[in-house]
Specification:
The chain has one domain. The protein has 3 helices and 2 strands. The protein is elongated.
Length: 120
């Protein structure tokens, strides 16, 4: 049986906090990062922010006897943070990863490529 040490738990929470802070960062200054409205969803249909849990991405409806896709992707997914109201777009995920990989959310701020080569 494996027991979690206090040090491991502390390190896990620190890593989790860095991840959460990365998500906050993308919402803090969306226009400076090239995004539009941070809450407007790319691939859903309806609702205030283009989000309706009942009409998720790819949702279809019969129109005049033809199955038609109602919930389509937005024209430029790279301008949105949220893909479907539950997941980030590829561009938002890339931005968050780059912040973590560059060490922006590490203490001390050490890029992953450097930290992974350090001797313990």
């Amino acid at each position: 049986m494996t027991f979690l040490t206090a040090q491991w738990i502390d390190e896990w929470f620190q890593a989790e906090r860095a991840s959460i802070e990365g998500f906050d960062g993308v919402f803090a200054e969306p226009l400076l990062l090239g995004f539009g409205d941070p809450f407007l969803v790319c691939c859903v249909h309806g609702g205030k922010y283009n989000f309706n849990i009942a009409m998720r991405c790819g949702w279809t409806k019969m129109v005049n006897g033809t199955k038609t896709v109602i919930a389509k992707s937005c024209e430029d997914p790279s301008s949105r943070i949220m893909w479907d109201g539950l997941h980030f777009t590829e561009v938002a995920n890339r931005w968050i990863y780059n912040q973590i990989a560059d060490g922006a959310y590490s203490d001390p701020p050490i890029p992953l490529k450097t930290a992974c080569h350090r001797m313990i």
